Target: Methionine aminopeptidase 2
Amino acid sequence: MAEVNLNKNVPFEENETLEPINGNGNREAAEQSKILQNDEDDDKDIAKKKKKKSKSKKKKAPQEQTNPQSMQAQTDPPSIPVVDLFPSGEFLEGEIQQYKDDNLWRSTSEEKRELERVEKPMYNSVRRAAEVHRQVRKYIKGILRPGMLMTDLCETLENTVRKLISENGLEAGIAFPTGCSLNWVAAHWTPNTGDKTVLQYDDVMKLDFGTHVDGCIVDCAFTVAFNPMFDPLLEASREATNMGIKESGIDVRLCDVGAAIQEVMESYEVEINGKVYQVKSIRNLNGHSIGRYQIHAGKSVPIVKGGEQTKMEEGEFFAIETFASTGKGYVREDLECSHYMKNFEVGHIPLRMPRAKQLLATINKNFSTLAFCRRYLDRLGETKYLMALKNLCDAGIVQPYPPLCDVKGSYVSQFEHTILLRPTCKEVISRGDDY
Model:
């Protein structure tokens, strides 16, 4: 879920126009442990040196190898909760990346390893949420087709999350509404009840959804485009996100991550209907730190140079997300609002409207400080709540998050991963075989 900067002094030319430029322009592998993969590589090296076969040392087939973390088979469509697929109760860790030179010592520090042992239950919770995310997105990618009603798409995705995560109040469930923003809409759009928007062949859709266990949130997104002419645009944001992940680390300045992201992003061009456009980073959209039950925890990760000099710290979660645009590279709030979230810092505020009090009780019970949308309220049986919702927003208890849009006619792509800055290494929690 994107963090937008609409109030700070972001450089912007009001007279900018959308101008073309000249030019031409399965998670299955993770089921085997890294130890076994390394052993397999070692076996191959030994075999090459001896230049002969040894029947006594013949390697077992993958299905015969023992792996305490391996998952059982999921159904199609997925319906088995992930806790039932991992009998050991231990979930797969994400991609491990080592820190850079100044922090290499952390990987062998016994003190830092002990800190990780203490945090193991929390790590396991967020890995469970990540496993749900991977399985759900794999399924959704397999059924996505032009002509799908966006409401059906979102409800299918969300219902699958509810099954696989074993939804249980605020202990496990959906972290925020499914964003399925199209084309020049960069983020925070999901259909309200009754919306008849249909996914088209030439649409560029950002599919941004979140899962959580015990408030540990996985925020992860990818872009879908059926028309291959958009491939360079998708590649720009995917590679820029990977660069942001690579550059992130303990004691790294946020501004340095943003500069690295922009350099990769703006090295791309995309040809759309015969015109070539320079890809731009959307300069007032950011990645962000994540806290328990708090999707935006206070730190912003820019995707252009010149951002904050605040440093990343040990133990922090970050959503590294980038937005590639063929437009102005600047978003404004527009269209009908669907996303809302209770203010994390809000204290007791007296309310006069009884209906607003009732609605707040529903929000506290079902979402607390996690984001929600109108469809979720409808699903809970709430009716005629718009005036009460407005009252909560006006009182500052609930914050509305309208869709964020670049110039009409442009196209925006997004990729996002959640990372954890562990004491000994960097873990890309949401990494999968797909991206």
About this structure: The longest helix spans residues 120-143. The chain has ten helices and 19 strands.
